[in-house]
Amino acid sequence: MGIDSNDVYTGAGAISETTAAFLDSALGEAPERPAVVFLHHPATWQSIQNWVVWPRFMLPAADVARLQSVLAAHDNVAAVFSGHTHRNYRSASPTLPGIVFQEVGATKEHMGGYGVLDVYEGGLVYGFHKLDCAECLVWSERTRRQYFGFYGHVVQGDPSDSAFAVVYD
Predict the structure, then answer these.
(1) Which of 62, 50, 47 is nearest to 15 (CA)?
(2) For 22-73, what is each residue's pLDDT tens digit?
(3) Domain that holds residue 77
(4) Is the pLDDT of residue 156 over 80?
(5) β-pair partners for 119
(6) Under a CB-based contact definition with an 8 Å cutoff, are residues 99 and 67 in contact?
(7) CATH code for the domain of 44
(8) Is residue 103 part of a domain?
(9) What is the pTM of this model?
(10) Among 19, 162, 44, which residue's Cα sits nearest to residue 97?
(11) What is the per-residue pLDDT for 71?
Protein backbone atom coordinates (compact mmCIF):
# COMPACT_ATOMS: atom_id res chain seq x y z
CA MET A 1 0.00 0.00 0.00
CA GLY A 2 1.19 3.49 -0.69
CA ILE A 3 1.11 6.51 1.60
CA ASP A 4 2.03 10.14 0.97
CA SER A 5 5.07 11.37 2.88
CA ASN A 6 5.39 14.85 1.34
CA ASP A 7 4.73 18.14 3.07
CA VAL A 8 3.00 20.08 0.29
CA TYR A 9 4.21 23.43 1.67
CA THR A 10 7.94 22.71 2.07
CA GLY A 11 8.75 19.64 -0.03
CA ALA A 12 10.22 18.03 3.08
CA GLY A 13 9.00 14.75 4.48
CA ALA A 14 5.94 14.47 6.70
CA ILE A 15 3.71 11.76 8.10
CA SER A 16 0.54 13.48 9.26
CA GLU A 17 -1.76 12.08 11.92
CA THR A 18 -4.34 11.54 9.17
CA THR A 19 -1.87 9.52 7.10
CA ALA A 20 -0.82 7.49 10.14
CA ALA A 21 -4.47 6.76 11.00
CA PHE A 22 -5.17 5.69 7.40
CA LEU A 23 -2.18 3.33 7.42
CA ASP A 24 -3.15 1.89 10.80
CA SER A 25 -6.68 1.20 9.54
CA ALA A 26 -5.53 -0.27 6.21
CA LEU A 27 -2.98 -2.59 7.85
CA GLY A 28 -5.64 -3.75 10.30
CA GLU A 29 -8.11 -4.74 7.58
CA ALA A 30 -6.30 -7.98 6.72
CA PRO A 31 -3.87 -8.78 9.55
CA GLU A 32 -3.36 -12.31 8.25
CA ARG A 33 -1.97 -11.06 4.91
CA PRO A 34 1.60 -9.78 4.56
CA ALA A 35 1.83 -6.10 3.67
CA VAL A 36 4.39 -3.97 1.88
CA VAL A 37 4.33 -0.21 2.44
CA PHE A 38 5.54 2.35 -0.12
CA LEU A 39 6.28 6.01 0.56
CA HIS A 40 8.55 8.66 -0.86
CA HIS A 41 10.81 9.40 2.13
CA PRO A 42 13.01 6.85 3.97
CA ALA A 43 11.42 5.77 7.24
CA THR A 44 14.26 4.99 9.63
CA TRP A 45 16.39 7.20 11.83
CA GLN A 46 19.46 5.31 10.54
CA SER A 47 18.65 6.43 7.01
CA ILE A 48 18.21 10.04 8.02
CA GLN A 49 21.42 10.16 10.07
CA ASN A 50 23.66 8.94 7.27
CA TRP A 51 22.15 11.00 4.46
CA VAL A 52 24.89 13.55 3.90
CA VAL A 53 23.26 15.86 1.41
CA TRP A 54 20.45 17.65 3.24
CA PRO A 55 18.93 15.97 6.32
CA ARG A 56 16.24 18.67 6.66
CA PHE A 57 14.64 17.29 3.51
CA MET A 58 14.05 13.92 5.16
CA LEU A 59 11.25 12.89 7.55
CA PRO A 60 11.45 14.67 10.90
CA ALA A 61 12.26 12.39 13.85
CA ALA A 62 8.74 12.80 15.28
CA ASP A 63 7.23 11.62 11.99
CA VAL A 64 9.58 8.62 11.82
CA ALA A 65 8.42 7.73 15.34
CA ARG A 66 4.74 8.20 14.35
CA LEU A 67 5.12 5.93 11.32
CA GLN A 68 7.12 3.29 13.16
CA SER A 69 4.62 3.16 16.01
CA VAL A 70 1.90 2.32 13.47
CA LEU A 71 4.11 -0.35 11.87
CA ALA A 72 4.92 -1.81 15.30
CA ALA A 73 1.22 -2.31 15.99
CA HIS A 74 0.91 -4.73 13.03
CA ASP A 75 2.69 -8.05 12.67
CA ASN A 76 1.93 -8.30 8.97
CA VAL A 77 4.36 -5.67 7.59
CA ALA A 78 7.16 -7.41 5.65
CA ALA A 79 8.91 -4.43 4.05
CA VAL A 80 8.86 -0.67 3.57
CA PHE A 81 10.13 0.79 0.27
CA SER A 82 11.00 4.43 -0.36
CA GLY A 83 12.88 6.68 -2.74
CA HIS A 84 13.81 10.33 -2.29
CA THR A 85 17.55 9.81 -1.73
CA HIS A 86 18.03 8.10 -5.13
CA ARG A 87 20.31 5.53 -3.51
CA ASN A 88 20.23 1.78 -3.07
CA TYR A 89 20.30 1.48 0.69
CA ARG A 90 18.76 -0.92 3.15
CA SER A 91 18.37 0.31 6.70
CA ALA A 92 16.89 -1.06 9.88
CA SER A 93 14.93 0.03 12.89
CA PRO A 94 16.05 -1.35 16.25
CA THR A 95 12.42 -1.43 17.36
CA LEU A 96 11.20 -3.23 14.21
CA PRO A 97 13.80 -5.92 13.52
CA GLY A 98 11.50 -8.01 11.33
CA ILE A 99 10.82 -5.27 8.76
CA VAL A 100 13.11 -4.52 5.81
CA PHE A 101 13.44 -0.81 4.97
CA GLN A 102 14.73 -0.33 1.41
CA GLU A 103 15.52 2.86 -0.49
CA VAL A 104 15.33 2.36 -4.26
CA GLY A 105 17.96 3.89 -6.57
CA ALA A 106 16.99 6.49 -9.15
CA THR A 107 16.43 6.04 -12.85
CA LYS A 108 17.34 9.62 -13.80
CA GLU A 109 20.94 9.72 -12.55
CA HIS A 110 23.64 7.51 -11.11
CA MET A 111 22.81 4.56 -10.32
CA GLY A 112 20.62 4.77 -13.39
CA GLY A 113 18.18 1.91 -13.04
CA TYR A 114 14.97 0.65 -11.47
CA GLY A 115 13.82 -1.73 -8.79
CA VAL A 116 11.66 -4.78 -9.38
CA LEU A 117 9.67 -6.34 -6.58
CA ASP A 118 8.40 -9.88 -7.14
CA VAL A 119 5.83 -11.00 -4.59
CA TYR A 120 5.13 -14.69 -3.97
CA GLU A 121 3.22 -16.75 -1.46
CA GLY A 122 5.63 -16.92 1.44
CA GLY A 123 7.98 -14.12 0.45
CA LEU A 124 9.22 -11.42 -1.84
CA VAL A 125 12.33 -10.81 -3.93
CA TYR A 126 13.75 -7.37 -4.71
CA GLY A 127 16.32 -6.59 -7.37
CA PHE A 128 17.78 -3.36 -8.73
CA HIS A 129 18.39 -3.39 -12.49
CA LYS A 130 20.86 -0.95 -14.03
CA LEU A 131 19.92 0.52 -17.40
CA ASP A 132 22.43 -0.57 -20.03
CA CYS A 133 21.72 1.55 -23.11
CA ALA A 134 24.78 3.55 -24.20
CA GLU A 135 23.21 6.95 -23.48
CA CYS A 136 22.07 5.76 -20.04
CA LEU A 137 25.54 4.58 -19.08
CA VAL A 138 27.13 7.87 -20.20
CA TRP A 139 24.59 9.86 -18.18
CA SER A 140 25.02 7.62 -15.14
CA GLU A 141 28.77 8.17 -15.17
CA ARG A 142 28.35 11.92 -15.66
CA THR A 143 25.99 12.27 -12.70
CA ARG A 144 28.21 10.11 -10.48
CA ARG A 145 30.38 13.20 -9.89
CA GLN A 146 27.62 15.30 -8.28
CA TYR A 147 28.07 16.61 -4.74
CA PHE A 148 31.80 17.29 -5.12
CA GLY A 149 32.46 13.80 -6.46
CA PHE A 150 30.88 11.89 -3.55
CA TYR A 151 27.51 11.08 -5.11
CA GLY A 152 28.56 7.76 -6.61
CA HIS A 153 29.77 6.54 -3.23
CA VAL A 154 26.68 7.75 -1.39
CA VAL A 155 24.01 6.26 -3.65
CA GLN A 156 25.54 2.92 -4.54
CA GLY A 157 25.10 1.27 -1.15
CA ASP A 158 26.30 -2.18 -0.25
CA PRO A 159 25.91 -4.82 -2.99
CA SER A 160 23.48 -6.69 -0.72
CA ASP A 161 21.21 -3.61 -0.84
CA SER A 162 20.63 -4.17 -4.56
CA ALA A 163 19.11 -7.65 -4.36
CA PHE A 164 17.56 -9.64 -1.53
CA ALA A 165 14.69 -11.87 -0.49
CA VAL A 166 12.30 -11.66 2.44
CA VAL A 167 10.58 -14.81 3.66
CA TYR A 168 7.35 -14.55 5.66
CA ASP A 169 4.65 -16.92 6.86
Answers:
(1) 62
(2) 999 999 999 999 999 999 999 988 877 766 666 667 888 899 999 999 999 9
(3) 17-167
(4) no
(5) 124
(6) no
(7) 3.60.21.10
(8) yes
(9) 0.89
(10) 44
(11) 98
